[in-house]
Structures are given as C-alpha cells and as structure tokens.
Amino acid sequence: MQSSNVFVNEGGDDDCENLKSLLDYSRGIFIANSMEVMLKLDIFGRVGKTLDASRSVESLAAEVNVDADALYRVMRALSKDGMFRELSPRVFSNSPRSIYLARDKTLHSYFLMRGREPSFWDHLEKNPDTMNLFADSMSSLTSLTIHKIIGLADFSKFKIVTDLGGSKGVLLKEILKVNKNIEKGINFDMVAIIEKNKHVNSIESGEQLDSRYVEVGGSFFESVPESDCYVLKSILHDWSEDKCIEILKTASKSLRQDGRIYIIDYIIDDQDSAHEKLASNFIAWLDVNMLQLFGGRERNLKEWHDLVDKAGFQIESIKRSQSFMTQPLIILTKKT
C-alpha cells in the first residue's frame, strides 16, 4: 500500500503535456525577470530590427558587458516560448513575436511596470514559514515521480544510504520501504530543516516511522555521515561548478569502499529523453530559474562529465525513465 503523502501520476506518459502545463504556472516570475533584463539591455533591438538580422551571444554580451553564458541561458529559454529564434548554436534572431520589441521601445514600459523581488535566500532566512513552504514544495515535486526514480535505482548492495539535502525525507522513506537490505537510511539536511522535521517525523501517515530511518543536521560543504551510497536529488543544479565540486569532494571523504553517488538531475538537450520537445522547453526554463534564484544551472552531458571528473569521480552509467518529468539517474564511482 502506498503512503498517503506520495502522489502517483495515474495518467501515465500521455498526461505529460497536462502536467507540464500545470507547472508552467509557477514560472511567471522568471519569465518576467528575464524579459526585464532583455529590455533594460535592449537585447531585442541589438539583435536587429528585421527578421533576417542575427547576432551571436558573444558579440551581444561584449557590447553590453554581461556574462555570455548567463545571457545565452536566458535567450535560450525565451526562444522556447517564441521570443527569439536560435538559428545556430549561440546565434539568435528576433522572432515574429519579439520583433515588435525591437522596433517599438514604447512597448517596453508595459513589461517594466513591476516591483523588484528580494533575494531568494535572503527572503528564506527572514521568513521561516517560507522556508518550510519551500521544503514542502520540493517534497511535493519529488512525490510526483518518486516510484519511477526508485525503479531506476538499485540499492540492493548498500547497507547505509544517505540522502544529502533530503528535506522532509520523502524519497528516503520510500527507498527504505522497497529495500529491506538497507540497515540505515540517513536524511541529511540543514539543521533548521531537521529541527522542523522533529515535529512531524514521529508519526507518518498513521504509521510508525521506520526504525532504520534517522536524521542528521549539518552542512554538506563541511562533512557528511559515512555511507555506501549518497543520493543527491535536485541538489547540484542549485550550485555553481565550484560549489558542486566542493559538495562531491566532501562526500568522497566519507564514501565507503565500492560506494556510489546517485545524482538525480536533468541533462540539457538529452537526445535520449522521452518527450524531447517537452523536456527541452521545461529544462530550459528550469535552468533560468536556477540562474535567477541560486546562481546554479542545469547541465548538458559534457558539463556533467567535466564536473564530476574535477571532483575525482567518473560516470559509471546513466539510467532514464520514459517520463520527461523524471530526472535521469547519473551513477558515479570514484576514479581509479
């Protein structure tokens, strides 16, 4: 019997379009922020006032003195919604929709009539209730795909499994239900989140909490509990490359012999992804969300290889679901 706090999408893969459309409602602020940046830098006008005109991201970035990679990520996401056309890698023209903003600056004021939002992390620090809401939202997104994720991952050889940044422990609790061989499951997260969990973890959905389940508070930049397997679901995309390397190196110090790291994150432009067009649009905007909220990013396959290599790991294999909402499982081993 499934626990009542885990949602299962009964509509199957045919319902992916509806689910994506639902989640699209959450990205309005990121579209608005992206449009504001494009208008203030006059990127639409600089690209050109005709549909035939085009510019490379590098030339635009140099002209307005901004980071070329960040500019590309925003333009790529907007192109998924018809605001630019990417003619070739990192070269854009205006679309029939965006050409109006290139030709008529009086339209700009319509998009700029909005207040500034506070820093995401600053807001969380000052509003504990919002931090709890954020933790709830991460758990709810995990619940949407939890059984597909567990179906991809083999935990049969592990005695200790630690979910790094596991929030309320939704994923780890389900892993323990399916894998009776695991002797201990550790939910590791910030002290504030673990303290909050103490109020709800004694009883879960009317059932006694699994005795193998424990919680530990701390920072994965400093130290983590010894484990056979570390799970990092939707964690590394929050962070820059340097911070990701720091997290992985911390885990490496406590990873037991023949251990594995399971990264559950999207892969940009993954040609093996089911529903490729849906996934491409969704991930492009998720990447902009990470850029605006955390300074993080979604990564393509080469970027994943380069990142884990710098941290002393290698990709052993990648496992994918047929649902675009379910992130691939990237399995790491230490380099020999």
Descriptive tags:
336 residues, alpha/beta, Arc Repressor Mutant, subunit A, Rossmann fold, 2 domains, seven-stranded mixed β-sheet, three-stranded antiparallel β-sheet, 14 strands, 44% helix, 20% strand
Provide the fold topology:
Layout: H1 16-24, H2 28-40, H3 43-47, E1 54-56, H4 57-64, H5 68-80, E2 84-88, E3 91-94, H6 99-103, H7 108-112, H8 120-126, H9 128-152, E4 160-164, H10 170-178, E5 184-189, H11 191-197, E6 203-204, E7 207-208, E8 213-217, E9 227-233, H12 241-254, E10 255-264, E11 267-268, H13 276-293, E12 299-300, H14 301-310, E13 313-319, E14 329-334
Parallel strand pairs: 4-5, 4-9, 5-8, 9-10, 11-12
Antiparallel strand pairs: 1-3, 2-3, 6-7, 10-14, 13-14
Helix pairs in contact: 2-13, 4-5, 5-13, 8-9, 9-10
GO molecular function: O-methyltransferase activity; protein dimerization activity
Domain O-methyltransferase C-terminal: 119-314
Keywords: Methyltransferase, S-adenosyl-L-methionine, Transferase
